[in-house]
Amino acid sequence: MTGQPRLKLALMGLGRLGAIRARILTFQQPRIEFVAACDTKPGAGEWAAANLPESVKFYADPEDCMKNSGCEAVLISTGTATHAPLICLALNLNLHVMCEKPISVDVLTTQEVVAKAASKPHLKFLVPFSRRYDTSYRTVKKMVENGELGEVHAVETACIDKQDPSGFFVTFSAQSGGIFVDMGIHDIDIGRYFLDVKNGLSNPKKQVNRVVAMGQQVVYSELTKYGDADNGWGMVEFANGKILTTHLGRTLMNGYEAPTRVCGTKAHSLIGANSVMNRVEIRDEYGVRTATTPDAFMLYDTSFINDLEEFSGAILDNSPMSCTSEDAFEAAKIVTALQYSFRTRLPVYFDDNGLPIMEAVEVNGSAKEKA
Ligand SMILES: NC(=O)c1ccc[n+]([C@@H]2O[C@H](COP(=O)([O-])OP(=O)(O)OC[C@H]3O[C@@H](n4cnc5c(N)ncnc54)[C@H](O)[C@@H]3O)[C@@H](O)[C@H]2O)c1
What residue spans in the chain does CATH classification 3.30.360.10 cover? Predict the structure, then answer.
């Protein structure tokens, strides 16, 4: 690649996702020069020294990293609560930004960040929803575009994690925004991706008519105090008449399952219907068995190669990106409305400006949503 321009990029956050990102940046991104990594937690420098190439400079302070590493772009893979301030800091320093979902757990902050990114059109801003970068979802998208499924009128998804005896997500719930906001954003995004939600609108600002959600705490009763569920069901009626349903869960015993059914008038297509880890079948006294994909992290490799390739291509070649700021904002509005609907047991309608109509709700002593 000598002589080819490469994008100088710094990675913020070396946690579960950041470690995968660091490996991909090191070995699988020929158009990116991985110049720096940053993490504020104690011990992160030692981890970086042991696991990253010597050429990657470690910083414990994000502002120092963004100002002094020579990076032109940042990939923000930190905890959700830090996304909005880090995005704004990077944009103020004239850096291109790619940030893991979600921008924030509240709609107003998301709106402010999206507006800030829009005010810097010379900078690329990408929140990559991973399913849009997965080859199976892309194959079905082509089938939809070619009309092979007929008129696509509904999408049904499920996303169910393996039960985690440590109950990590129970304490995580206080910051995650809840199961609809944290987990469901992928399902909402993929529904929007297939349902052509901007087409056939009488009011272009309003993409959604109403949402309704229900949920349970079947294993983790402590979630009640965070206004959260370990199983949740959401329905979204888009303004063009298309319907999305989703079942989100944290209590599966065999592994991780995330099937998506795209319903068309000529055909249905199913992605990930049987979440097998490989093609091996065991035939024994229990019957015919396959191993299940243990968690979502196993599926990220291809998506994470594709989204980083797209981000660097967008900056270096001005090529188009698969997700826009509007996609991040629209998905954020819907998941926040679903979480609100679950908490209040009420349907949420969207107004003519496309905003969900919600009052502030008290959850664990603090207001969680605003209209
Ligand atoms: N498919 C997906 O798109 C997907 C999947 C999983 C997680 N996520 C998102 O990715 C993000 C990271 O998830 P994770 O599971 O890796 O979390 P994590 O808690 O394992 O890691 C976050 C890391 O960021 C570091 N950090 C926190 N604040 C920082 C700051 N200001 N500057 C630098 N470093 C900081 C922490 O010390 C930690 O090491 C979350 O927002 C999550 O919602 C996206």
Answer: 133-300+324-368
The domain 7-130 belongs to what CATH superfamily?
Answer: NAD(P)-binding Rossmann-like Domain (3.40.50.720)
104 Cβ inside 6 Å of ligand 1: no
Output the pLDDT for position 2.
Answer: 55
- What residue spans in the chain does CATH classification 3.40.50.720 cover? 7-130
Over 143-168, what HEC string results? Answer: HHHCCCCCCEEEEEEEEEEECCCCCH
Ligand 1 atom index nearest CA of 83: 41
pLDDT category at 333 given cuts 50, 70, 90 is very high
100 touches ligand 1 (CB under 6 Å): yes
Give the residue whose CA is nearest to atom 34 of ligand 1: 39
Ligand 1 centre to CA of 100 (Å) is 8
**CA-proximal residue: ligand 1, atom 1 (nearest):** 130
The pTM (predicted TM-score) of the whole model is: 0.94
In this prediction, residue 301 carries a pLDDT of: 86
The finding on whether 177 has its CB within 6 A of some atom of ligand 1 is no
Ligand 1 atom with the shortest distance to the CA of 38: 33
Secondary structure (DSSP) of 46-83: HHHHHHS-TTSEEESSHHHHHHHS--SEEEE-S-GGGH
Cα(287) to ligand 1 centroid in Å equals: 40
Residue 277, φ and ψ in degrees, nearest 5 = -80, -30
Strands 231-238 and 282-284, by their bridges, are unpaired
Residues 116, 109: contact at Cβ < 8 Å?
A: no
| Per-residue model confidence as pLDDT tens digits over 177-227 | 999 999 999 999 999 999 999 999 999 999 999 999 999 999 999 999 999
Instruction: Reply yes or no on whether the pLDDT at 288 is more than 70.
Output: yes
Superfamily of domain 133-300+324-368: Dihydrodipicolinate Reductase; domain 2 (3.30.360.10)
Residue 172's pLDDT band, with cuts at 50, 70 and 90, is confident
The two tokens of residue 212 are: 């309704």
